[in-house]
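Journal club prep — side note

Before the paper discussion, L.F. wants everyone to see what a predicted structure for a comparable chain looks like in token form. Sequence:
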Amino acid sequence: ISADYFGGGPHVNPAVTVSMFTLGKCSYTDSFVRIAAQLCGGLVAFPIFHEISNIMKWEAFGGPEFNMDKDDYATAEAFLSEFCATTLLMFIIYILNWELHFGKHHYIIKQTLTAAAIRFLIEFFPTAGPAMNPMLATTWYVFGVGKLYEYPKEFEHYFVYWIAPMLAAILASVL
């Protein structure tokens, strides 16, 4: 919320940036820089937050993942789950940011409602985690699932956590 407020709407989700590019609200160069910055921000923030949670003895936190070895349909199910959740997230973002106005406290209300909607989508679409944010899924893998500082080697990770949200963002934008 702070990054969005003080940064003038920097987008913290590559899928949102792809949607804004599709809608003509940011250029290709702007989109590329935003997505690179989002990934870099996640790679810096994740280990810091993880260390703070260890120092404070907070409960361990998890991230998005699915069992690729479960069966032949696990990847397809995870893809569909991530795709549907991200499509709905885009519509929620559009409605809260462009259609509804909450007066003087618009910003804090829309961010709170967005956070609540994200929590609902996570509970409603549990198959892939879900991330609904490619940066979160990748940084979780780098620091939480894979070998430390190693990017995912499996195509399934990119198929579920990058391709599905990007296609969902484009579809939501077109619709």
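L.F.'s comment for the group: The mean pLDDT is 84. Keep this in mind when we get to the figures.
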